[in-house]
Every structure is written in structure tokens, then in C-alpha cells.
Design brief:
Chains A, B: Pfam families: TP_methylase. 2 copies of one chain form a homodimer. By secondary structure, chain A is α/β, with parallel strands linked by helices. Chain A is about 25% helix and about 25% strand. In chain A, the strands form 3 sheets. In chain A, strands 3-2-4-1-5 form a 5-stranded parallel β-sheet, sandwiched between helices. A 5-stranded mixed β-sheet of chain A has the order 7-8-11-9-10, with helices on both faces. A 3-stranded mixed β-sheet of chain A has the order 6-13-12.
């Protein structure tokens, strides 16, 4: 009897994986994943059978992992949390009677937030700007509602070559509801090699620093920058 | 020179901590935290100085941790991700010139989601129903906007003795926007001792099983239950 683990490796650096994710991968016979993610855990999977596939081969990759899991212990790995814009959904949709377990990992917004301070301390939402599977009109509607509800907003997949102007258009929507000094953080490669971050305000925002490996976090109406740190207050009364 | 780590231990079970969180705690001289969280990591902090305080002593606890961090390496620990409804914000708000680093952990919605399937696969938001620091009118407004934007909704602090009817009222708001067969998951003590979960629909929802240790996840208009698993499709085309 085999088993399929859908494993989140978190941001990509070994030390931000959970102990459970490490253990599950170590105990697996076969590792399946997108080439780039496989590379991130290469020290952990020496001497294992590895099946890596290119980008946008998600359905094929999940099919293969499910098939193999009938007779083998298999881990299909991805960065972040497989349950948030990851592979957990597709695996469970395609599953027939295979034994599947989801191993959660640190999602990109948590990783990015920890680098710039504490921007997600209050009600917050994750919105992907990728329109591959979501109409852009719905994405913009969600931005508008999140902005009007004063949610802190984390943007996943904020920019790609095919839709360079979406991010700027979405920031313009948020501007209708928030002051110009509202903080925005751009975090690239959060908690992994190549990490960079930059803080802006709605008024000073420059989308040219943003790429597909970035997360963009927009504060709520109470967020502020203090000594280079992005804080959204939870509301505690602090004695002076 | 001391240092203060604001450490998320994740759901509470040792194996869902990150390697980095374990290492940082092991390397700290003093551990500060709410009594209940300290208990969860007791095997990790034998022979360390431990300062535990009761519930709602957040400001006092953070003040103490900051003070001690001037001359010692200190970890202030909490469950989940300290950057999401945790202690990172308060610490950074109160900080003067202390050296502070936030160590992210698995947040409750990720942990809960992994147990019931893949409910958070699309745009989603976290809303706390605690009105200790947020007016209930604003909470209800956020529920309404999130429901109308078809976000998957994770409710933190869904119920307490002082506000037993909030959850039901919020579910009633969601009902105005979603079909009666929309899945709802209640997950109690996700990925720690005492774990329990139950799936409902908007129509069958029974709030009597919910307590303060639960997270409630409400699906979007495409979410469904398949063989006891809660799935929100990301939108991939699956060959039949």
C-alpha cells in the first residue's frame, strides 16, 4: 500500500520547513515536483527517485504522483502552503481512492510579512493577480471589496509579462479607499536565496521592482512605518 | 548584547514547528509566553528560565520580554504565526532600540485547512470575530464584503462566552450571498492534542460545536465536498 503526501516546503529555505515536512520527505521513496522546487530541497533528497516537470504541467504532475502512490510512498512538493494556491486542491480533485495527506507549510504572505515587520496583524486577505484561471474583472472586484472593508491585502503572483499593468491598476483601486501614506511592502524571494524587500506608500509606490517571485502587502487604514518597520496595530492600549 | 525573537510555534504540536523556530528557542536563554503555550513546548525548554503569564496580560508580557532582551537572548512564543493576530505587532509597536526578529509559524487557517482537504485554494481572507479591539459593526461589514466578493473565509476566535451569537449572525450574512450547500468546516485544536473536525453546509451548520479553540472555514461559490473532503477548485481543467 502506497501513500501520497502533498508537502509544503514553505518559502524554500530548508530551515523554514516544518519538522513534519522534512520527515515525510525523508521517508518517501519518490519525490515529484516542479524542477525549481526540487532544486530547493536537493540536499534532502539525495539517492531518491525524483520526477521533476516544468511549469504549467500541474495536471500531468498530479496524475503521475497519484499513479505512483498506489504502490509507493510519494511526496509531491511545492513551495509555500500546498493548501493556498498550491497543489492540494488539484490532487484531491483528481484523487480516486489513493491515500492522500496534506502537510501544510509556511505560506508566502507569512514569510514576507515576517521580513518587513508585522503588517498582517489584523483582518487580512490573500488575492492572486494571476488571471490564468480567474477573470480579471473578478480579481478587480475582490481588490475593491477588500479595500473598502479595510482588509490588509497580500497580493500573490503580482506581476507577469503577460499582464504588466494589472498591479498598477489594482493599486489605483486601493487608492480610492486609503490615504496616500498607507504602507506597501514588496518582498522578493522571502526567506530564501535572493531575498530583497522595499517599503513604499500608496503615493510613492513603484511597480517596476515587482516580479513574479514577489509578494506585495498593502496595509490597512491604521498601518504605519516606524523606524523602517511596517506595523499594523492590533489595537492594544500601550502605556506611554 | 541581547536579542528578542518573536517565535511562532505553529499549531502547537512539536512536529509542525519550523526547524528555525526550534533552533531559536533552543538557543534562547529565557522563554516568555502565555502559560498554555509554554506548556506545549515544555520538552524543548527544560533547564531554561521561563516566564509565563496569564491570558490578556499581553502588554505586560511584551514589556518584560523587551526589557530582558537588552542583556539576554529571549524568545517570546505564541501559537500559530506571531504576525497574524499574534504578538509581533505589539512587540514592534513597543520596541525602542531592542534587536527584534520575527520567526513565522504555521497560522491556524493553514493548519485547519490541511485537515479537511483544500478549502483555501483560491482568494481567501482571515477575519477574527473577537470584538475586544474591533467594533462588531466593522466585523460584520467585513463578513458582508468578503461574502459578496466570493472569498473563502477563515474565522479566527469564532466564539466566546461573551458573544455567543456573533458566529450565527455572521453565517446568516454569508447566506445572503452563497448557496445553502456551500461547505463549512469547523476544526478544533488543529494539528495538536484534542484535534476534532466536522463538516457542514451553510444550511446544516450547527454552531454549538464551535468554541474559542476552533477555526471555521466557509467555502466560496465553487467549493464542494467529495468523499468527506472539502475542496475549493483552483480552476485547472482536469481531463476525465
Amino acid at each position: 500500500m502506497g501513500k501520497l503526501y502533498v508537502v509544503g516546503i514553505g518559502p524554500g529555505g530548508y530551515e523554514n520547513m516544518t519538522l513534519r515536512a522534512v520527515k515525510v520527505i525523508e521517508n518517501s521513496e519518490i519525490i515529484v515536483g516542479y524542477t525549481k522546487y526540487i532544486e530547493m530541497i536537493k540536499d534532502l533528497i539525495k539517492n531518491k527517485e525524483v520526477i521533476s516537470t516544468g511549469m504549467r504541467a500541474e495536471v500531468e504532475r498530479c496524475k503521475k504522483a497519484l499513479e505512483l502512490s498506489k504502490d509507493h510512498v510519494v511526496s509531491i512538493v511545492s513551495t509555500g502552503d500546498p493548501g493556498i494556491y498550491g497543489m492540494a486542491g488539484l490532487i484531491l480533485e483528481m484523487r480516486k481512492d489513493e491515500d492522500v495527506e496534506v502537510i501544510p507549510g509556511l505560506t508566502a504572505s507569512s514569510a514576507a510579512a515576517s521580513i518587513v515587520g508585522a503588517p498582517l496583524m489584523h483582518d487580512n486577505c490573500n488575492i492572486s493577480l494571476s488571471d490564468l484561471m480567474t477573470p480579471y474583472e473578478l480579481i478587480k472586484k475582490r481588490i475593491e471589496l477588500a479595500a473598502s472593508g479595510d482588509f490588509v491585502i497580500s497580493l500573490y503572483n503580482p506581476k507577469s509579462k503577460g499582464r504588466p499593468h494589472y498591479l498598477k491598476e489594482c493599486i489605483d483601486i486601493v487608492k480610492k479607499y486609503r490615504k496616500g501614506d498607507t504602507p506597501i511592502a514588496v518582498v522578493k524571494n522571502a526567506l530564501r536565496e535572493g531575498q530583497e524587500h522595499k517599503l513604499f506608500t500608496l503615493d510613492s509606490f513603484d511597480d517596476s521592482v515587482v516580479d513574479m517571485m514577489s509578494v506585495v502587502i498593502i496595509g490597512n487604514s491604521n498601518s504605519y512605518i516606524k523606524d523602517g518597520v511596517f506595523i499594523t496595530p492590533r489595537g492594544y492600549k500601550i502605556p506611554q
